Amino acid sequence: MTELDNAIAAAFASEGQQQEDVNKVYLTLLRTQLTIPVKKETSLNEEEPFSPLFAKIEDKYFLIAFDSLERLQAWAGDQIDNVGYVELLGRDFIAGMSDQVYFSLNLGTDYYKEFSPDEIKRLKTIVSKIDQLKI
Q: Given the DSSP bridges, would you call strands 113-115 and 102-105 parallel, antiparallel or unpaired?
């Protein structure tokens, strides 16, 4: 189990009733190195250095990320040769994400977590506050 798995397990166990458990998931996510599956492309440009893959789950589109390359590889299975990836710190991934999108962390694992657009907005607020403290 990863540190992020432990935080998610604690939040699930408290059924989200303990705000400190939820906050720990958010803070752990922001400092975790994420592996994001992307389209393999030969013609990348400076404005769009990569194109992330999306998953369609229950008629919603989700950006996908994993907290390890091994988990991405397990998810991609025999299609791994068709999938590229980039690694970003969770805070950078969230900062660059639209707050209108859904986000799926560790899809297909025991500690899979979906983040709604409202959670993305909250995470972006946390990133903004952290950035203000650094000034």
A: antiparallel
**Alpha carbons 70 and 75: distance in angstroms, whole number:** 9
- Residue 123: inside a domain, yes or no? yes
pLDDT (tens digit per residue) in 84-122 = 999 999 999 999 888 888 999 999 999 999 999 999 999
Residue 20, in any domain of the structure:
no
Question: Could you tell me the sign of the dihedral formed by the alpha carbons of 51, 130, 116, 13, in that order?
Answer: positive
Residues 65 and 103: their CA atoms lie apart, in Å, by 8
> Which domain CATH number covers 60?
3.40.1350
Residue pair 116/102 in contact (Cβ under 8 Å)? The answer is yes
Domain assignment present for 115: yes
d(CA 1, CA 16): 20
Q: Is 22 left (phi over 0), alpha (psi -120 to 50) or beta?
A: alpha
Q: CB of 74 within 8 A of CB of 64?
A: no
Domain that holds residue 108: 33-40+49-134
15 within 8 A of 121, measured Cβ to Cβ? no
How high is the pLDDT of residue 17? 77
